[in-house]
Structures are given as C-alpha cells and as structure tokens.
Amino acid sequence: MILPLPEGFERHPLRVRRGTVEAIRHPAAAGRDRGETVVMVPGHFGSKEDFRLVMPLLSAVGYDCWAYDYTDQFSATGLDSYNDYTLDLLAADLVELVGERRVHYLGHCMGGLVARRAVLERPELARSLALVSCGPHMHGLRHRAMWVGLDEMLAGSGLMGMWPVVQRLLPEGDELAAGFWRSKLETMNHAYVQGTADSMRTAPDLTGELAASGVPVLVLYGSRDRRLWSHEIYHEMAVRLGAAEAVLQGAAHSPVMERPEATAMTLLNLLESAQEVCR
Questions:
Q1: Could you tell me the CATH number of the domain that includes residue 226?
Q2: In the chain, N or C terminus with fewer CB closer than 10 Å?
Q3: Residue 188 lies in a domain
Q4: Does the predicted TM-score (pTM) go above 0.70?
C-alpha cells in the first residue's frame, strides 16, 4: 500500500552500494529556494511518510526537504542478514546518499541515532542536527524490558504484534494512516527489525563526540513523551551538547505527526541560527 501524498511531493527510488532506498522529496517553493537541504530519518518502526506534514511547511519557506526509508527496510528480497542492519551501516548508507551536499539532518528516535553517526562521519557536511524524541543511548532498565518484549514478540506473534503499539503513535481517527501502517508491518523486512534492535541495545553514548563536533543541535520532544527517555534525560543530554531544547506541549513520542506546525516552527529556529554558524 502506498500512502497518498499531497501535491508537490516526488517519489524517488535510489540506489546505494548495499541496496535500494525509497525516498520522498518536497522541493523548495518556487522563487524561495535557499539552496539548503533538510534530510529526515525515521524511527525504528517509522517510515519516510511520517514527515509528510512537516516537509511542505519547511519547503514553503525555501528548504529542499527529503525523507528516507532505510536500505531495503520494506523489501523481502533485499539485505537478509541481521548484521546488515547495524546503526553504523545505516549511517554509512545515509552518508552515501547525501554525497557532498551540506545538509541539515532531522532524526526521529532511532533515526536520531543514525543521523548522529552520519554527522560524526562527515561533520563538515552537517549544517545542523535535530534530535526528535531521541535520547543518548538505550541501555536503561526500561530499554532492557523493551528489548526482551520485542524478542518475545518476534519469536511469537511476529511483526504484527507491534500493531497495538503503532496504533497508539498514529493520529486518532486517521484510517488511511492506519491501513498504510498495517500494510507496512506486513511487508517490513524481519532482518531489519531484529538487526537494528540488536545494534541499538549495545550502541554507545556518543553525546561527547557530537558536542565536540561543533555542529548546531536541537533536542526536541513532546510534553507527554516519557516512553523511552524521561524529560530529565533529554534535558541532561541537551546540556551536555550545549544544544537548544524544545518541549512541544501536547505531543507525545511523534511530534512530527502530532504537532507538525509547532515542530516546523521550532525547526526553523534551528535552521536559521545554523545559517549564521555555518557561514
């Protein structure tokens, strides 16, 4: 199932050395192009379409917006080894896609962990990084419980066991999005799900390295988001990074879907300030 997108979007299947990446693009509005690109990276069970409400808002003021799925994330014939889906390899794919462009990165949850690595691999090409609902690591007690639950689910009910969790992240009453996500869970590459989970549970805290990179960072999360990280952990990470911090009222774990206008306005503050730093 393909989720219909509003007018102005483009779909791009892209090749990297390791496989195929599906992308969507919303070009900068005619006559307002700033010559700057924003690259958006989804969470573990997310997809590029999660950003469909934010992308037009940023494009309207001049940013060329792209959002990617992960390499062969929804392909039954793509990468088939758990070892193909480490955060480092997914970040390398992202760096390959970006090429020599200087870009602003936005990563949601796991996408923040991937984008953080892409920034550290080529910091000279990163204009800024927005970490949306993304903490420093996934080593806490709540994470350990989550990994155990995920392992049990995959061994038992399979990926459709995630449906109750995904439902809670979707806008209430959005039947189109619900049908789209049921379809995604039915087609998602099992190796991707298990491999990324295995990588996340051991991934190191790279906050110090990111702070030393000098790349402007925003830590953004919802006022109701305590599912994976507490507000205290988000705040502590922002302090360590010397980053801007924003709490979106009324949003939970998916501000880009729950509060797209507020998310876009907050991101614009980062993008505008990063222009001054990067000149």
A1: 3.40.50.1820
A2: C
A3: yes
A4: yes
